[in-house]
Amino acid sequence: MKTQIKKICCIGAGYVGGPSMAIIADKCPHIVINVVDKNKQRIDQWNNNNLDKLPIYEPGLKNIIKKCRDNNLFFSNKIEENLREADMVFISVNTPTKTKGIGAGQAIDLKWIESCARQIGEFAKDHTIVVEKSTLPVRTAQTIKTILEAYTAKEKKEKVHSRSFSILSNPEFLAEGTAIYDLQNPDRILIGGDDNCALNALSDIYLNWVAKDKILKTDLWSSELSKLISNAFLAQRISSINSVSALCEVSGAKINNVAKAVGMDRRIGQDFLKAGPGFGGSCFKKDILNLIYICNHYGLNEVANYWQKVLDINYWQQKRITKVIIDNLFGTISEKKIAILGFAFKPNTNDTRESPAIAICNDLLEEGCYLSIYDPKVEKSQIQNEFSKFSGNSFNKSWNLAGSVYEAVSEVDALIFLTEWEEFSNLNYEIISEAMNIPKWIFDTRNIVEYKKIKDYGFKLWKLGEGIST
Ligand code: UDX
Ligand code: UDX
User: Fold this and answer.
1) C-alpha distance from residue 306 to each of 233, 288, 301, 328 (Å)
2) Rounded to an integer, what distance in angstroms lies between the CA atom of residue 57 and that of residue 233?
3) pTM of the model
4) In this structure, which residue's CA is closest to atom 32 in ligand 1?
5) Is 28 a catalytic residue?
6) pLDDT at 1 (0 to 100)
7) What is the pLDDT of residue 157?
8) pLDDT of residue 158
9) How far apart are CA 351 and CA 183, in angstroms?
10) Whose atoms come closest to the Cα of 277: which ligand?
């Protein structure tokens, strides 16, 4: 039997749900897609006529929204109505780490997934294909199945028209900042499941723009686990190169030269070898914590400890940057003013979740300095929110958000690059030099500054993975 998908409902209009549904809408004009979210403000932002005010900044996103929105792509809070009409439902809600109870600090809180499964069980019609898009612990599909089976068993018992469900796992590999490109040109599409009809229905959607040989069909558990492992491997590479960055600084080697030489080995590869202030983003830490939890659960403590080290190095990398700054500013930054350039966890996104800037800024504020922060896309309320999660409101009066790099550097003792935004690679160092207090320290954690271009202006430069330039 061939299932033709005509209507999709996606629960969760976030960084994953929004862009991934926009691409399906763009590539499949014959499918109507309703993205629903319980958060009314978020939906209003997706429906904003001013496309610069979408809730998510992603290069290329606004053109697709402009083309598809209100044609075959709709954003609303009408969860019940849209679930009733959908042939296929994507679950794309957030999956935070548990803060309380068993597994607190490691396990993923599945309460939103459970509530989605219950909503689907309550409202879906006839046969519905349920697709896990969120990154989930292995065997979560079983939880969803069990919940949905409870609904169908009740219907069978009461001899009313019985519905049916197929569950698929279809993890999303997009990276923020390049989400549209990644969705349009995926390395692979992974679909896990045991119902061939459902597997083919989802794969047919992707075949509208993805080559057949890039669509990988597996069992459910392998698909769920593959996503966790992909993120763990990516994070592991970053922790590996970051650990080497510290060794370069003390030994006189240069991290970029080492990364290049190592990455030219075909078996290792060039990507994901950029040393930095530690990885951020909503996924890496959460997914590794979850992996650690699963390993411990199955008694694989050595495996859990191995992955824990990836997180430990990431934490240490952030901590040691603050120490380097303090040591070079004569052992104290109390009452000094410091410029922070970049707050997002990576360029081309307004996302700040787990950004290393949060912990680094917080450590600096703890030492009594004043921060002047500039980021091209992050709003003040968001920075405020991140700080308050970390340290309450204690530092409200100790920082400001500047409107430009040049405003941020006015009368600062040091400037710190924390995100490699494109505009930071073409700065006028003559203006910056005149604005700063001597001895004009620059701390570059993202390999943005070339010493030969700035040395005539009297700066002192420390680069991550190189140390002090002379
Ligand atoms: C999240 C996870 O971080 C990631 O691991 C997973 O792969 C996909 O979901 P993201 O899209 O970045 O990624 O999350 P977020 O931007 O927070 O969006 C989730 C949305 O789901 C929110 O807008 C939230 O309001 C919504 N939601 C959550 C619902 O609509 N219903 C719920 O029951 C729970
Ligand atoms: C990641 C995965 O790449 C993606 O496949 C998955 O779907 C979600 O998680 P994302 O977190 O959006 O995507 O961005 P990514 O480009 O992976 O960067 C994560 C963090 O690692 C950023 O803080 C970035 O600055 C850092 N990073 C990345 C490095 O420090 N060095 C690198 O070489 C690459």
Assistant:
1) 12, 11, 9, 34
2) 26
3) 0.95
4) 112
5) no
6) 61
7) 84
8) 84
9) 18
10) 2
